[in-house]
Amino acid sequence: MTRNDAIRCAEKRLDDGRFFLDLARRVAYPTESQNPARAEDIRRFLAEEMMSSLASLGFRCRVLENPVMSRLPFLAGRRVEDENLPTVLLYGHGDTVWGMKGQWDAGLSPWRLTARGGRWYGRGAADNKGQFSINLAALDCLLETRGALGFNAVFLLETGEEMGSPGLREVCERERAFLSADVLIASDGPRVNPDRVTLYGGSRGVFNFDLIVKLREGAHHSGNWGGLLANPGIILANAIAALVDGKGRILVDALKPGGIPENVREAIGRLSLPENTAPPIDTWWGEPGLTPEEKVYGWNTLEVLALSCGNPENPVHAIPAEAWARCHIRYVKGCDPEAFLPAVRRRLKEKGLDAVEVRPVRESLYAATRMDPDDPWVRWAMNSLKRTTGTPPDFLPNLGGSIPNEAFAEILGLHTLWVPHSYAGCGQHAPNEHLRVPIVREGLRVMAGLFFDLAEGGRPA
């Protein structure tokens, strides 16, 4: 059987409706990891749906208890054909964000997969049940057409990614032997351009911290006390302005990368963000002298995610007692996140803003990773994807967002290849989450081709 046979088999899964039915079953499980009441649903999803699906592909599976958050277990399976063959680690997350039932368009439900206008709607359809389901379907087609994979495979499914992947690092440390592999091939996140395949090799890290100004107990009348009492809102505004200017440029050198490596800059330079984005890009925002692509894939950003002072719903004529802001740094490989908070504190002290407390928060979870554009696995994957589509894919040394890739790249020491099967407008983390059917078709095709090439060619030189 040929490579084209495997690709046609994958397309047939879409055309005969089998893939839709598989995904519909998986979407029907309400696996909201942020909702403690869903703990039993999450375990049922693993036991009833995923263990049987993986067993049908020849995986020997077991549930791995989470050492950090027990209600969010892992499922791991391993299929060994020959110890001398290369081994691929596949990954997905079976959890979702809140379903937001009642906020979806009429006729749509988060826990029912609905086909409408070339899209499939349902919570987890894009993030991430649909994406890992595409990869499993491609594996199944390899078995159907070749009779064997031609490589060994490990599958790791977590159920806490939307909570920041608690326990993932610990499980990778503990199960290092079971999860050992040559390369990670997985799917999550969006394509750069919806109509062209993307390959990325890592992600920016994420680091959150709070700025807190608490000066006294209770608010005080602004007529009687204005000019006599320091205003925490004004102090907080000045603290933010000391870190980032009015055009989004970071003002503290220790919060920025030292530069963009030349081969990374060259790889980013071959990208082109879609012209008609919604919302449109603010080209004047961010680090001057960088292209839009360099800003999101090659540089750091500092954002204010939320802030509060006084009573925003019902302001009164009083000087508030305190103010708070949640700030957020996305950073690239090569930056030291341990240096961020000391640098922020030094900057605020230099500006005389000693009343501002700088506090780390639990959500500082993901480290930055990046694949070298010259890595042989990158060249191998790029050639395979181009062979299937006829068009060179977009390559990102790292995604602009953040995923738990450091568990695979750093702890397990793997080359990491990510082929996303969604796009930026998919509605993930919002009502009306969906997959675009043309991306599903192309995803099935390219993954069948990628796995076939691994079976036929083995490890890249």
Features:
13 helices, globular, 18% strand, four-stranded antiparallel β-sheet, alpha/beta, six-stranded mixed β-sheet, Alpha-Beta Plaits
Summarize the model shown:
This protein is of the alpha/beta class. It is built from 13 helices and 17 strands. It folds into 2 domains: 3-203 and 367-457, Zn peptidases (Aminopeptidase, 3-Layer(aba) Sandwich), CATH 3.40.630; 205-257 and 300-360, Alpha-Beta Plaits (2-Layer Sandwich), CATH 3.30.70.
Please provide a written account of the structure.
The protein has 13 helices and 17 strands. The protein is of the alpha/beta class and 461 residues long. The model has no long low-confidence stretch (mean pLDDT 96). The strands form five sheets. A six-stranded mixed beta sheet has the order 1-2-6-3-7-16, with helices on one face. A hairpin with a 2-residue loop joins strand 4 (114-116) and strand 5. The longest helix has 21 residues, at 437-457. The protein has two domains: 3-203 and 367-457, Zn peptidases (Aminopeptidase, 3-Layer(aba) Sandwich), CATH 3.40.630; 205-257 and 300-360, Alpha-Beta Plaits (2-Layer Sandwich). Helix 1 packs across helix 4, helix 2 (18-27) runs antiparallel to helix 4 and helix 11 crosses helix 13. The chain has helices at residues 3-15, 18-27, 39-55, 129-146, 168-174, 222-225, 232-243, 262-269, 292-297, 340-350, 376-389, 406-411, 437-457; strands spanning 60-64, 74-79, 87-93, 114-116, 119-121, 152-158, 183-186, 198-200, 205-214, 220-221, 301-309, 318-319, 322-331, 357-360, 394-396, 415-418, 434-436.
